[in-house]
Specification:
Helices cover 72% and strands 6% of the residues. It is mainly alpha-helical. It has one domain. Helix 3 runs antiparallel to helix 4 and helix 4 runs antiparallel to helix 5.
């Protein structure tokens, strides 16, 4: 069980949720490649969700890797960058999210 602000939730729920976050992270790539006008809105919404997780899930509050993902999203919101850089940062964030999932949620099953 994972401690959250309002009680306990099953580890399996967080494993599935982190898979969902990984898919949401991956979705950044086609938005950038297509020069989508909604990319910044999507990134801002995704970042709000990540911040909410940090506040909701007690073990993520002090997890530096999770902060790294937040920082990467902030960079993608505030700066101009190539598709190549976007791809690099998206895959770095996916790797970090997979590592966090394994460290806190998969291994505790």
């Amino acid at each position: 069980m994972i401690e959250v602000k309002y009680g306990l939730l099953p580890n399996e729920s967080f494993c599935r949720y982190f898979d969902f976050l990984i898919n949401k992270t991956y979705k950044i790539l086609p938005l950038k490649e297509e020069c989508s006008e909604t990319l910044i809105d999507y990134l801002e919404s995704f970042q709000r969700e990540l911040i909410g997780n940090k506040e909701l899930v007690s073990i993520l509050k002090d997890e530096p890797q999770f902060v790294s993902v937040l920082n990467t999203m902030q960079y993608l919101i505030d700066n101009e960058y190539s598709v190549k850089i976007c791809k690099k940062e998206v895959f770095k964030s996916i790797r970090i999210l997979k590592d966090i999932n394994k460290k806190y949620f998969i291994e505790r099953k």
